[in-house]
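Researcher: Next entry: Alanine aminotransferase 2-like (Stegastes partitus).
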Amino acid sequence: MYTFPRITLPQKAIDKAKEQGQVPDMYYCMRLLEEEGICLVPGSGFGQREGTFHFRMTILPPTEKLKVVLQKIRDFHLRFTQEFS
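Model: Predicted structure:
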């Protein structure tokens, strides 16, 4: 089973992604992978509406493991948005 949460990215992060030749949600997912070792799939590969950003993640892990992963994603997202705000 998958979930497709919508994320809000600061304009500076969108601009940085474009500078590097990446779509913004790919840039976000790659940074998360590099910094936290968590692999998500960018929503841009699934036909999201222009100007919106998502990622796909599996929600099948045991609840306790999922809680740890979700906390790491939350912490990363806060750092990421602060960096580009």
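Model: Note for the record: The mean pLDDT is 95.
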